[in-house]
Amino acid sequence: MRLNFDCVRDILLCIEENTDLRNQCIFFDLELITAFPSPDSTPSPYQMELSEKYGNDTVLYHINYCCAAGLLSLSESQESDRTIVEDLTPEGHSFLANIREASNWEKIKKVAAKAGSTSLPALSSIASQVIAAIIKQCLCLP
């Protein structure tokens, strides 16, 4: 599957919004819970919103990618029909801080497209440089 970094960004924003010290984000495999329903397998509104926008398989794939890339931490107790995300990692918080603002995200994507690279390390580097340029511009204001 081709990575969709708009989906990655939306997942990170969702998890930041919906997790805290006592709450985790749970993402169900909608095909499995449709085939094998249980009383504790009701998808959350945040999952449904992401799934409507990107498709459930794409969302689950990108959550797994974010975990492998060190952006998300998973709960140690996983079940076959669900992925339980505890929170963003420090690296996930840092990356999200640089791509949170929509206007900055659009600039980052434009630079990445011109450079011909949309890997996570490239996007992270571009994001840091875009933010540094914005900071420099703000410091030079009269």
Order of helices and strands: HEHHHEEHHH
Largest beta-sheet details = 3 strands, antiparallel
Helix content: 55-70%
- Radius of gyration (CA) equals 17 Å
| Shape call | elongated
Tell me the number of helical segments per DSSP (H or I, 4 or more residues long). Answer: 7
Beta content: 5-15%
Q: Largest beta sheet: what is the strand line-up?
A: 1-3-2
- Average pLDDT works out at 92
Point out poorly predicted stretches. none
Number of β-strand runs? 3
Please state the structural category: mainly alpha
Give the termini separation: 48 Å
Overview of this protein structure:
With 142 residues, this protein is mainly alpha-helical. Helix content is 61%, strand content 10%. The chain contains 7 helices and 3 strands. It has helices at residues 5-18, 30-35, 45-54, 56-68, 90-99, 102-115, 120-139; strands at residues 25-28, 72-74, 82-88. It has a 3-stranded antiparallel beta sheet with strand order 1-3-2. A hairpin with a 7-residue loop joins β2 and β3. The N and C termini lie far apart (48 Å).
